[in-house]
């Protein structure tokens, strides 16, 4: 499980590195997207899988709620946004890139605020008393950075905005990494499918009794 998280982080970091090389003129607009897409398309799966496992873990702890469902949707949208940011450059597809950035950063920030709330609703709470405050502090830092990004862009201070954007990205990666505290207690992950026929048979048997 920790290996998948590290793999996801490495892919996201390679995505940002590729964008910087494109902005500096190191990559050509035609060839660079195809090269990076071969890597970036694989970032969607691990991040989505992490969100799904976390969703199922909360259910297994007996807390299935609308909050958990909304959290899953937000996490998947964050993963899709990260893939969009990686696959579409700011030079050629600026609108799609901005949509992906909104999903990856802002919806991703919402996802971890929801996870911070879920931390206090499930038992056992892995990580003890520190995991909740750490998630809240990191989510707050990310929120402040994203607000500063919008403000600094409006003031045309792009260097400062880029710094805040990088800080927000690193905090989001740290928050994904914190799932290792919860996932190290998982021994396996299974999906169960109930066949319609057997469910009808069980219903008939119950009526006969």
UniProtKB/TrEMBL annotation:
It is found in: Cell membrane; Cytoplasmic vesicle, Autophagosome membrane; Endosome membrane. InterPro entries: CWH43_N, DRAM/TMEM150_Autophagy_Mod. It is a multi-pass membrane protein. Residues 33-186 form the CWH43-like N-terminal domain. Pfam families: Frag1. One of its GO terms (biological process) is autophagy. One of its GO terms (cellular component) is autophagosome membrane. Keywords: Autophagy, Cell membrane, Cytoplasmic vesicle, Endosome, Glycoprotein, Membrane, Transmembrane, Transmembrane helix. Its main location: membrane. It comes from the Eukaryota. The keyword Cell membrane applies. The keyword Transcription regulation does not apply. The chain crosses the membrane at residues 66-88, 94-114, 134-154, 160-181. Belongs to the DRAM/TMEM150 family. Modulator of macroautophagy that causes accumulation of autophagosomes under basal conditions and enhances autophagic flux. Represses cell death and promotes long-term clonogenic survival of cells grown in the absence of glucose in a macroautophagy-independent manner. May have some role in extracellular matrix engulfment or growth factor receptor recycling, both of which can modulate cell survival. This is CWH43-like N-terminal domain-containing protein. It comes from Scyliorhinus torazame (Cloudy catshark).
């Amino acid at each position: 499980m920790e290996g998948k998280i590290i793999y996801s982080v490495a892919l996201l970091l390679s995505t940002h590195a590729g964008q910087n090389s494109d902005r500096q003129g190191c990559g050509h607009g035609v060839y660079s997207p195809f090269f990076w897409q071969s890597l970036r398309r694989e970032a969607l799966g691990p991040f989505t899988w992490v969100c799904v496992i976390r969703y199922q873990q909360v259910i297994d702890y007996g807390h299935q709620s609308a909050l958990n469902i909304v959290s899953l949707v937000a996490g998947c949208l964050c993963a899709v946004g990260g893939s969009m940011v990686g696959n579409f450059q700011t030079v050629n597809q600026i609108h799609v890139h901005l949509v992906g950035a909104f999903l990856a950063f802002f919806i991703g920030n919402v996802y971890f605020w929801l996870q911070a709330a879920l931390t206090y609703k499930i038992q056992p709470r892995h990580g003890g008393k520190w995991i909740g405050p750490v998630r809240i502090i990191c989510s707050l830092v990310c929120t402040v950075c994203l607000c500063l990004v919008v403000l600094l862009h409006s003031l045309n201070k792009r260097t400062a905005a880029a710094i805040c954007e990088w800080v927000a990205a690193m905090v989001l990666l740290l928050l994904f990494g914190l799932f290792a505290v919860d996932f190290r207690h998982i021994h396996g992950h299974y999906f169960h499918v109930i066949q319609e026929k057997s469910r009808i048979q069980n219903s008939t048997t119950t009526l006969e009794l």
